[in-house]
Amino acid sequence: MIIMLKKIINISLVLLIFTLMMSSCMTPSVVEKTANTAVPDSFDSSLDSINSASIKWKEFFEDPYLRALIDTALQNNQELNITLQEIRVAQNEIQAKKGEYLPYVDFKAGAGMDKVGRYTSRGASEATTDIKPGKEMPDPVPDYMFGAFANWEVDVWNKLHNAKKAAVARYLSSVEGKNFMVTNLIAEIANSYYELLALDNQLAIVKRNINIQSDALRIVRLQKDAARVTELAVRKFEAEVYHTRSLQFDIQQEITQVENKINYLVGRYPQPIARNADGFMDRMPQQVKQGIPSQLLANRPDIRQAEMELDAAKLDVKVAKARFYPSIGISAGIGFQAFNPSYLIQTPESLLYSLAGDLTAPLINRKEIKATYKSANSKQIQAVYKYEQTILNAYVEVANQLAIINNLEQSYGLKAQEVQALTESISISGDLFKSARADYMEVLLTQRDALEAKFDLVETKMQQMSAFINMYQALGGGWE
Fold it and tell me: Which GO terms describe its molecular function (predicted)?
């Protein structure tokens, strides 16, 4: 028995060496690519390493109504909850891959009946066998059996272990994908919330302007009665009041749509959004420290997600390459089998056991394995480019937001002066019109210019708030 086992081992080693030589000669060559993660030293002249991405979103956003919306969205947002289930799927995939390189052990039990024809080789041999009286073979022959049987693929080339590692990398990638979704969700809710506050302020401006224009219309009508102006002036002022009133309903419709958008993100049916628009124009967005570009590699979830996808793609190449090499399998079983239940657990007569090994290697049709190997390598190179693209995109986003913040700061100051000048010009034009030193068209144009300038100022304030929110998002803040 020992001699036979040694022969089997020797033959297996010879076959293993032969197939290894054949596989190494027939494995196609591929081009490998390493990701370039080098980034500039700074976004601008500053080398300050303080980074606002480390600030938690509850500390970054001071408005209690906004914090409540974000907190609800992180619990109820359907898209986020779908992603959480995808994470669980990826986690289960790890267990599945881990189970592939562990032995498969099954318990088997069965019962049957076997009737062999008398005039067959087996039937004739059983009939001529010298069996003691009372111990004859039953006819037909029952068969009872139970035992444990195992199969195991020996992971010599780490094919199965690398497949599990790739599943782990993809699980971590799905977690980073969830984190990236959280940053986007928080930023989208915050931007919509401040858009809602801006619309509230624009609606308040329109209502004040309606009152101003209604007063001007009343004066024009009095002047028309006094024959100081014509009916044309009255109609022009009336048309301006109607135009401004129509703006009121346009803004109210926008408010409804933005409220519904926020409710959708929060995961609930439409309802009024609790908020306080007072002091919106006096709000100063929290200053954001951009840190240094290399911190993006650790702070941005999408960059880490791309990195994990690259790691998984590299492992996929190793798994595909291992398919060129032979696989070694071991099967074993132990149990009891007898034709009579009373003999079933008697040993060693009813004991059965088996032990076998097999060596399998692809020799003839290897086109599918080669194609899979080349595809895995192409996907790995693709993952490298995606990783580099994600890093570049992150840097550009931060650089753009820095420029937007600086430019909006200058723009807001100039627009504020413009609003102040036009607001003063409204009363001046009104006084000149009353004294017949200004045309009514000058009054109307001045009022319209002032209204548009106030709208622009509110819009610029909203853009300022959005710029700091987007900067916080671009740095990778909010997901912790």
Answer: efflux transmembrane transporter activity
Asked whether residue 57 is domain-assigned, the answer is yes
Into how many domains does the chain fold? 1
**pLDDT tens string 147-191:** 999 988 888 888 889 999 999 999 999 999 999 999 999 999 999
Q: Is 313 helix (H, G, I), strand (E, B) or coil?
A: helix
Instruction: Give the pair of three-digit tokens for residue 266.
Output: 């929060």
CA 383-324-101 angle, to 5 degrees, is 80
Domain that holds residue 198: 31-101+155-326+361-474
25, two tokens: 């000669």
**Which H or E element spans position 116?**
none
Pairing mode of beta strands 351-360, 104-114: unpaired
The H or E element spanning position 271 is none
Encode pLDDT of 111-131 as tens digits.
888 787 777 877 777 666 555
372: pLDDT strictly greater than 80? yes
Domain-located, residue 119: no
Q: Which CATH number covers residue 367? A: 1.20.1600.10
Q: Is residue 260 part of a domain?
A: yes
Region class of 288: left (phi > 0), else alpha (psi between -120 and 50), else beta: beta
First and final C-alpha spacing in the chain: 64
Output the pTM of the full model.
0.83
pLDDT of 324? 87
